[in-house]
Design goal:
With 455 residues, this protein is of the alpha+beta class. 28% of the residues lie in helices and 26% in strands. It folds into two domains: 10-26 and 242-449, Enolpyruvate transferase domain (UDP-n-acetylglucosamine1-carboxyvinyl-transferase, Chain, Alpha-beta prism); 28-240, UDP-n-acetylglucosamine1-carboxyvinyl-transferase, Chain. The protein has 13 helices and 25 strands. The structure holds shikimate-3-phosphate and phosphoenolpyruvate.
């Protein structure tokens, strides 16, 4: 389903202390991969805690279109996979809606098959660069017909025998790494991915869990070499998806900023490739207590108790970006209320997300009265802890550009700004966090829809 029929504006206002205990919906990255690997593996995969956001549901639909049987019984998703190498040719274009992850990983997964598969998405996804995935697939022998600049719509056709490659990932991207590895699943021999900067490792861990012969070697400089033996058997698994740390970021930052708040967020994924925001906020002086750390399904998980804190500005180093890449918009909002200056470095990848997030964040901050500078790959925010004068005084809403994280970040901003903050669309939040409004208002946040208008 592609979003974008009608905009649904929403407004948030200065709120009193946020209080309560919440459970965050499942991690989006792990949920996409659960549908993909379950849909591909032999036998049955059972998933609980799956994120039922639009992005993930679209991945489920595309796996169904390629032969997986997927149903929900009670709280459990039950999948009968096709078996590795046995996906069926999709009869219609595969529509990934707003999801870069769903689209790029599936390009790898099915692009190497010797039949046509066509990829489409919404207006946001159609603008995003696909060459980063299509280029290594071309090296593996895949033919590509794509719109100008390697954009969607794109049609891929694999050769009769794909070529195993050694690919050094040129940018810090788990999606690119994963696409090459997933192409390697249906390629004879060893596909090797060299990852100079570590990104989220869910593909590696989950493929090992499904029985793939995959090894990871890390050298003294931290460069990782991932080797996958193609055309092996994958076997269905039982998966319990932990809570999404990227969704957690919104109630977490809200609790830090709203005076008197004390919020507990349960069952949060604490994989070290995903915890950069928590580390950064702790450096800024945040009171985040990590409670009951435990291992669940091979992943670190914990409960987080978050209390209102006076934050101070810090410099966030470029090498931390991969571990908090989706959290910069909400970190920028936290920085707007910190004492002093926060400097964020190494943000080039933000320009190719659902929106150009660096511009979207800087524009939104400026619209709401925040003193900030957007550089080519940097953002500098000079904070004002009182929030005095902040808010949409001009009456113009924040433009979200079909970007869920821009919408949620600025709704958090309104909870502590002197004036209300309005965003032009909150409907897009359903791509990653459909429960956002209810969860936030349940804690005491004043967020409400404002009258709709046609797009
Ligand atoms: O592999 C994944 O699940 C993801 C990787 C990241 O994208 P990039 O690979 O483009 O950095 C991230 O921004 C996205 O939300 C999810
Ligand atoms: C970048 C994101 O997702 P995707 O690339 O899957 O659209 C995100 O969820 O912030």
């Amino acid at each position: 389903m592609s979003h974008g029929v009608a905009l649904k504006p929403a407004r948030s206002q200065k709120s009193a202390d946020l209080k309560g205990t919440v459970r965050i919906p499942g991690d989006k990255s792990i949920s996409h991969r659960s549908f993909m690997f379950g849909g591909l593996a032999s036998g049955e995969t059972r998933i609980t805690g799956l994120l039922e956001g639009e992005d993930v549901i679209n991945t489920g639909k595309t796996m169904r279109a390629m032969g997986a049987k997927i149903e929900k019984i009670g709280d459990e998703w039950i999948i009968q996979g096709t078996g590795n190498g046995a996906l069926l040719a999709p009869e219609a274009p595969l529509d990934f809606g707003n999801a870069g992850t769903g689209c790029r990983l599936t390009m790898g997964l099915v692009g190497v098959y010797d039949f046509d598969s066509t990829f489409i998405g919404d207006a946001s996804l159609t603008k995003r660069p696909m060459g980063r995935v299509l280029n290594p697939l071309r090296e593996m022998g895949v033919q590509v017909k794509a719109a100008e600049g390697d954009r969607l719509p794109a049609t891929l056709r694999g050769p009769s025998t794909p070529n195993p490659i050694t690919y050094r990932v040129p940018m810090a991207s788990a999606q690119v790494k994963s696409a090459v590895l997933l192409a390697g699943l249906n390629t004879p021999g060893i596909t090797t991915v060299i990852e100079p900067v570590m990104t989220r490792d869910h593909t590696e861990k989950m493929l090992q869990g499904f029985g793939a012969n995959l090894t990871v070697e890390t050298d003294a400089e931290g460069v990782r070499t991932i080797r996958l033996e193609g055309r092996g058997k994958l076997t269905g698994q039982v998966i319990d998806v932990p809570g999404d740390p990227s969704s957690t970021a919104f109630p977490l930052v809200a609790a830090l900023l709203v005076e008197g708040s004390d919020v507990t967020i349960e069952n949060v994924l604490m994989n070290p490739t995903r915890t950069g925001l928590i580390l950064t906020l702790q450096e800024m002086g945040a009171d985040i207590e990590i409670m009951n750390p435990r291992l669940a399904g091979g992943e670190d998980v914990a409960d987080l108790r978050v209390r209102h804190s006076q934050l101070k500005g810090v410099t966030v180093p470029a090498d931390r970006a991969p571990s908090m890449i989706d959290e910069y918009p909400v970190l920028a909002v936290a920085a707007a209320f910190a004492e002093g200056t926060t400097t964020m470095l190494g943000l080039e990848e933000l320009r190719v997300k659902e929106s150009d997030r660096l511009s979207a964040v800087a524009d939104g901050l400026k619209l709401n009265g925040v003193d900030c500078d957007e550089g080519e790959d940097t953002l500098v925010v000079r904070g004002r802890p009182s929030g005095k004068g902040y808010g949409n005084v001009s009456g113009a809403p924040v433009v979200t550009h079909l970007d869920h994280r821009i919408a949620m970040s600025f709704l958090v901003m309104g909870l502590v700004s002197e004036h209300a903050v309005t965003v032009d669309d909150a409907g897009i939040i359903a791509t990653s966090f459909p429960e956002f409004m209810d969860l936030m208002t349940g804690l005491g946040a004043r967020i409400e829809p404002v009258e709709s208008r046609a797009a």
